[in-house]
Amino acid sequence: MLDIKFVKENRGIVEEAIKNKHSKEVNLDELLAVYEERKELRNKLDELNQKRNIAAQNRAVDEGVALKKEVVTVEAKLVDLDKKFMSLMILLPNIPSADTPVGPDESGNKVVRQVGEKPSFAFKPKEHWELGVELDLIDNERAANVSGPRFTYLKGDLALMQFALIQFALEILVNEDTLTKIKNDSGLNISPKPFVPIIPPVFVKPAVMNRMARLEPREERYHTEADDLYLVGSAEHTLGPIHMDEVIPAEKLPIRYAGYSTAFRREAGAASKDTRGIIRMHQFDKLELESFCLPEHSYQEQDFFVAIQEYIMKSLGLPYQVVLICTGDMGGPDHRQFDIETWMPGQNKYRETQTSDLMTSYQSRRLNTRFKKKDEKPDFVHMNDATAIAVGRTLVAIMENNQQADGSIKIPEVLQKYMGKSVIAKQ
RNA sequence: GGAGGGCUCGCAUAGUGGUCUAGUGCGUUCGCUUGGAAAGCGAAUGUGCCGCAAGGCACCACAGGUUCGAAUCCUGUGCCCUCCGCCA
Q1: Which nucleotides in chain B lie less than 7 Å from some protein C-beta?
Q2: ipTM above 0.90?
Q3: How many Å apart are CA A375 and CA A365, to the nearest integer?
Q4: Which CATH number characterizes residue A32's domain?
């Protein structure tokens, strides 16, 4: 959610953000009128309450009764206006950063850099689902019988590799020396404070999802009726609200979490997209980064997140490109968004494997997550969220990039120690 | 799932209808004192909204209700604790 004072003073910027992000039209005149009316009513209510307090002191029964009646009327109006005000406010998207390209859709995204060399093959590279079936690593067919489409059994060395990837990434994220190196290599002037590893809940209350601005589109979420809870679509959904309604002393920032959880997505509206293999599943595991920092550090914090993502991909030997997402393709709560797209030789294209979202205070305002500097008033923290490892898609990238002529898959060197072998070959 | 207890200003507590614009202790900050410190003494010490300010309003887990008046009474919800049952 935006700050209403900002909206009031920067109508043009807000209108442009709505237009460029293809957000739902919001009548700003109406919004501001509702805000002013609400303010007036508040003041009126304050006055009434003051009179009422005095009347009560004086045991003025008749006057009290009369005032109470008036208060009830005003309060009812105020409740209505509050609802209306909030319903309009949450429609407003976050303002894109100055360096965000304006564009209609993904065609407007800007490739910032390409890193790593695409492998060349003396044979026609296979797609990961061919490799997966041939090497008995994924079994979508049986999973479909048991659970339906877009589920899989990850088997054998691929299951082992999932844990190898997570362990590999976690060791980077909790190691201050490694993080210091990453930060210095990127020329960032930022704390190298390690991430706290977390295994977060995968169920979340609807009201909290709403405060994260992640409830919509609702049809994308799994919902349990008996308990009225949603299954998270990302660890972000329960990591982000972890400090809601808290005031964090400024010296404790940044607070960084690395959360590992399963993500659940209905993939509504993605019918017939990526139906083969394990690119787009209803259920997949992910190591997610989430941080809370001072406003003046949030750009660098995001740059740091991207640097970590790149360090991981480089270490795995995967060719990738960093993409700055344009207004038409970015999420509503985002101020700036980068995607890491990794080269997939089987499919002969770059596919999104990671994303990095700078939310500024858009989420923290509704979550009421604040920081306090000594002798200053509390203010809203800035939040960053990013993927460290999306296991499924990273496995796909490794399979397709590291396939060999004999149909086996070379295990990236950094993962070998966790798997006790160097190649995934046919049994 | 069952039975009981609890939730008050950073922490600990007092407060069972108006004297609560919430008291006290601890902590923190400032001042006095001192060669310096400790102790002692004094003062300050939350959040949000409106306002240039003075000031006002709201908040005692949350939401409703009763009352001229609610931290206090009633109802619902959440969370915590103890015991029982079940269980990875």
Answers
A1: 18, 47-51, 56-58, 64, 68-69
A2: no
A3: 21
A4: 1.10.287.40
